[in-house]
Amino acid sequence: MRSIAVMNQKGGVGKTTTSVNLAAGLARQGKRVCLLDLDPQAHASLHLGVELPANAPTIYDTFLSERSLQQIRRLVGPQLWLAPASIDLAAAELELADTQGRELILRQALDDLFAVEPYDYVIMDCPPSLGVLTVNALSAAREVFIPLQPHFLALHGLSKLLETTALVTRRLNRDLRVSGIVLCMYETNTRLAADVAGDLQTFLSSSDPEAPWANGQIFTSRIRRNIKLAEAPSFGKSIFDYAARCPGADDYLSLVQEVIAMEQVGELPLARAA
Ligand code: ADP
Ligand code: MG
Fold first, then answer.
1. CATH of the domain at 166
2. Domains in the chain: how many in total?
């Protein structure tokens, strides 16, 4: 079982697109996948065509009213489950302010879920902040994937994000590792994109070997800018269901295969201890 938080506190970098298409792609490869929508904007839920009636239980209820993930997750495709979000989740941060152990609610909920239902992958689509929802994802996950857009400000803000993972590693989840960086909206024909990727690799390989990102890799699959990826959400479909033959589908399929190949990498302790 692998649990992966897809995280970056910047908006618009490709977190949701990556979470949804990675989850859908893994499911198409025969993996049992549960996608958790942790963003109050509920973009991942909408991307998979889930529109909920007003009083339907969502992940907000897992955080605030002890609904189990099993009660809220729904089947959205073969082998693919989604724990949906709703706008209520925007209030969770404040509502949890006085709750003891609020950083570990999701971890407990996932442990309870795994006790009754096995999954090969849990993918968490994080909101664009480093607040309590993201900290919950980092406490519950074993791995972090960071999508980023390789432009000249890409590395700006990365140190804050990495500090947060280091803090969570020290205080809440010592098994957490930043295992992959996904370059999204990649411009194949610019030097800048290649330069940013190079700088990033240099930064990773020169890091303190004890840092949670020290063994992180930049995925060789680059997600090119492709209009089909931007269109698919409005049809409530993953890229594989919306346009199976387009550069966006090719790139995400290649990422899926790379992610599956990491399962074989012996030195990465990927399976989270039960
Ligand atoms: P985040 O979740 O980090 O805010 P999104 O995944 O929602 O980012 O992406 C932001 C916007 O860019 C969305 O409208 C999405 O459809 C679009 N988008 C994401 N990746 C690509 C891509 N590779 N090519 C074209 N558009 C993309
Ligand atoms: Mg998003």
1. 3.40.50.300
2. 1
Distances (CA, A) of 109 to 50, 66, 67, 83: 22, 9, 9, 12
- 19 Cβ closer than 6 Å to some ligand 1 atom: no
Which residues, in sequence order, are CB contacts of 108 under 8 Å at separation 6+? Answer: none
| Alpha-carbon Rg for the chain in angstroms | 17
Q: What is the rounded average pLDDT of the residues 117-121? A: 97
Q: Which atom of ligand 1 is nearest to the CA of 232?
A: 16
Note the pTM of the prediction, 2 decimals.
Answer: 0.95
Q: What is the DSSP string of 123-182?
A: EEE--SSSSHHHHHHHHH-SEEEEEE--STTTTTTHHHHHHHHHHHHHHT-TT-EEEEEE
CB of 184 closer than 6 angstroms to any ligand 1 atom: yes
Q: Which residues contact 167 (CB under 8 A, 6 or more apart)?
A: none
Cβ–Cβ under 8 Å, residues 27 and 80: yes
Q: Which residue has the higher pLDDT, 183 or 201?
A: 183
Per the domain annotation, does 268 fall within a domain? no
Q: For residue 177, what are the β-bridge partners?
A: 143
- Comparing 74 with 154, the larger pLDDT belongs to 74
Q: How far apart are the C-alpha atoms of 145 and 217, rounded to whole Å? A: 10
Does any domain span residue 269?
no
Using CA atoms, how far apart are residues 167 and 212, in angstroms rounded to an integer? 10
The pLDDT, as a whole number, for residue 195 is: 87
CA 108 to ligand 1 center in whole angstroms: 31
Residue 201 and residue 211 in contact, taking contact as beta carbons nearer than 8 Å: no
Average pLDDT of 222-229? 97
Q: Using a 6 Å cutoff on CB, does residue 47 contact ligand 1?
A: no
